[in-house]
Design a protein that fits this description.
The chain is an all-alpha fold. The chain contains ten helices and no strands. It starts with a helix and ends with a helix. The protein binds zinc ion (ZN). The site of zinc ion has 8 residues, from loops.
Length: 263
């Protein structure tokens, strides 16, 4: 039964990954994410349904446009495959619980922000601000109607909306100082993203998320410097690490805290 659900979620994740690709392509350019339908960025030919099947079409077309044979960005394929695997993992990790759609929603949010910051070096307010409102409304509803994800609210003030609000303030404060002190690489977008992560993971997990982002960013930056892919003066965006760390914290934050501080 679980295998069947994992296969179904793999398929759903591939389709959602395809949509995330559209968001990451169009939103930073200020284009509508609904219209026009998908088209080749080289020859502008509209992509037919047959050529628009997530994962499969890319392999079938060997990564090229059906009409003009221009090379398609590899990212299209990796995001579809990555989101598919992630969704299969989510249903395996959470089972068919109410947390599943919630965490899936937050994963889509963080994957989009990760991609956009990686490719464009921006964290759009158009995503961050509405997401903040949604996260607070969900936490508020959870507190009122008494459903709370135990992983998120197990250690804070044990009231979701309070943990979320405090988490957001802590995220903002923790990144405010480095953003003011070290210009290149970290900016206001990162401060706002840290606040959003606080609203999502709550207190105290937001501290873990930022800690993980710093470690992950440090490791990746060291590797990029060693391999001479990036120079000392190149700015490496911090948003992708914050986004990745937020997802890791959502999945295993509670376990990591239990390991570090056994009670
Ligand atoms: Zn084309």
């Amino acid at each position: 039964m679980t295998i069947l659900w994992m296969v179904l979620f793999f398929g759903a994740g591939a389709c959602i990954g395809s949509f995330i690709n559209v968001v990451a392509d169009r939103l930073p350019r200020g284009e509508s994410i609904i219209r026009p339908p998908s088209h080749c960025s080289e020859c502008q030919h509209q992509i037919s349904a047959r050529d628009n099947i997530p994962i499969i079409s890319y392999l079938w077309l060997r990564g090229r446009c059906h009409y003009c044979h221009a090379t398609l960005p590899q990212r299209l394929f990796w995001v579809e495959l990555g989101t598919a695997i992630l969704f299969a993992f989510l249903v395996w990790h959470y089972g068919l619980t109410w947390e599943l759609p919630l965490i899936a929603l937050y994963c889509c949010l963080f994957i989009s922000l990760l991609l956009i910051d990686l490719e464009h070096g921006i964290l759009p307010n158009k995503i961050i601000y509405p997401a903040m409102v949604v996260a607070l409304v969900i936490a508020g509803l959870g507190s009122i109607f008494n459903f709370e994800p135990i992983d998120i609210v197990g250690r804070g003030f044990r009231l979701w909306i309070v943990d979320a609000a405090i988490g957001g303030v802590i995220g903002l404060v923790l990144l405010l100082l480095p953003a003011l002190l070290y210009r290149g690489g970290m900016g206001w977008g990162d401060v706002k993203l840290a606040a959003l992560i606080g609203f999502v993971t709550g207190f105290p997990l937001v501290i873990l998320a930022i800690f993980l982002a710093v470690i992950l960013g440090g490791i990746v930056a060291a590797i990029l410097l060693l391999l001479k892919i990036k120079g000392r003066k190149d700015a490496i965006p911090f948003g992708p690490f914050l986004s990745a760390a937020a997802m890791v914290t959502l999945f295993w934050g509670g376990n990591i805290v239990n390991l570090l501080f056994p009670s």
